[in-house]
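Human: I wish I could look at a protein chain and see how it folds. This is the protein in question:
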Amino acid sequence: MRTQIALDAEQHARVKQKAASLGITMAEYIRRLVDRDLAAAGPAGDPSSIIGIGRSGGSDIASEGKSRVADAVADAVAARRSGRT
């Protein structure tokens, strides 16, 4: 599928130079960037993004879920840093 994008002059020059240094076309370079970005946004994303998906409105976890997840992550990070894993 064909897609058209607009780059400013500096971006175009830098992309062209980077692709040339890798021995690939600009299109291939951009496809690789897109693939890498999409792979990074895969299932290993932020777990708090799913809190509240099935929200019934009646439980505390539905309304306070993100802060509870954040607290749990902060506690885990602190434990790891202090060697209490």
The chain has a mean pLDDT of 81. Helices lie at 9-22, 26-40, 60-81. The chain has three helices and no strands.
